[in-house]
């Protein structure tokens, strides 16, 4: 699971209420996915230290594990665990504070690691009778998911790139998927045809796994509108990430919500079913890598999926090893005939010539400004060019000429003089000592954005953990006064 996709999923999970977390943690497959893919490494170590403890973990004992210099890392790990309601701080009988782990999370993670229980949350393989004695090949599933996903990408970029309907992928985008794209503000209808938005521009430059999660999070936010259970939807998605590619699974144990999901996810290429009445389903690579560290289905980026486009794509190996050459004079040459690759390049490049297996153009101030205004950042452009640099470019490090990278950044800065950050202003502290203490805590959490020592105020991106910290300090002071 890539960093960007895990961050998206984690941010969504952190925003859920404790009641939803408790229901989610009833499923071992969900708990294992959260543990493996959502938690920082240190948070995993803390969970494992508490998993088989017969009692709570005293705060003082946990603090003794860390050097003072590691305070920030420790606080960030604890912050994530508390936000996910995996651990909580409680007062013991002797008045000291201790960490306790959620009983539901603890039980489910034990079951997942030990292979115990009768939960069947990791899917039920289809019987020979249900599958009809036949099993589809992995190659077929890859081709199916690739075709479905490239249809979505074509729908996004075709309007901006001027692609005709005849050039669009053979996989038709269903009405449900179109609604997701519009609801997520990835595309808008202008004069009867789809037009990509600034969020859509950012979407197509993401890794495939991050793209899938972006669309699924929009889907999750629509569950109430669709009359579905958010908990069941999330549990099913995490279950898909634990399934085996090439294995068919029975639908007999699925709930009505999950059966509806099969139809929705099929149109996105995550699931394959021969028809709506089929008693089995196959997860594709897009689904089985949802909670995996192995990356996305068709390699690192969206344009690799385009390789299956009949008549329009070059060999997959070309995209995998890189196809872009860029010179110090900002001239760009791309050895491809994939329409999706060409369309993505046109988002930030002024394309000038097209040949059977080559397009050429130039990075200009105007083309980069246009991309920036659409929501694409200079770092995204540089990352894309670096990821798909031609083998000839990869003989030197960095792959992209430094002058080109610097100029792309400068062009972006010319159009963006002010940066805004959403957050909270902390002020009116009782003393300088209190201000310094809370400021240090915010810095340790990594949420500090700005500070003004003279005015005893600072700005943070998140306030929940700081509020909890202030409450605990207040309770400690009151307890100390009461003890006297």
UniProtKB/TrEMBL annotation:
InterPro entries: Tfb2_C, TFIIH_p52/Tfb2. One of its GO terms (molecular function) is double-stranded DNA binding. It is found in: Nucleus. Coiled coil: none annotated. GO terms for biological process: nucleotide-excision repair. One of its GO terms (cellular component) is transcription factor TFIIH holo complex. Gene3D superfamilies: 3.30.70.2610. Keywords: DNA damage, DNA repair, Nucleus, Transcription, Transcription regulation. Residues 406-471 form the Transcription factor Tfb2 C-terminal domain. It comes from the Eukaryota. Belongs to the TFB2 family. Component of the general transcription and DNA repair factor IIH (TFIIH) core complex, which is involved in general and transcription-coupled nucleotide excision repair (NER) of damaged DNA and, when complexed to TFIIK, in RNA transcription by RNA polymerase II. In NER, TFIIH acts by opening DNA around the lesion to allow the excision of the damaged oligonucleotide and its replacement by a new DNA fragment. In transcription, TFIIH has an essential role in transcription initiation. PANTHER family: GENERAL TRANSCRIPTION FACTOR IIH SUBUNIT 4, TFIIH, POLYPEPTIDE 4. This is RNA polymerase II transcription factor B subunit 2.
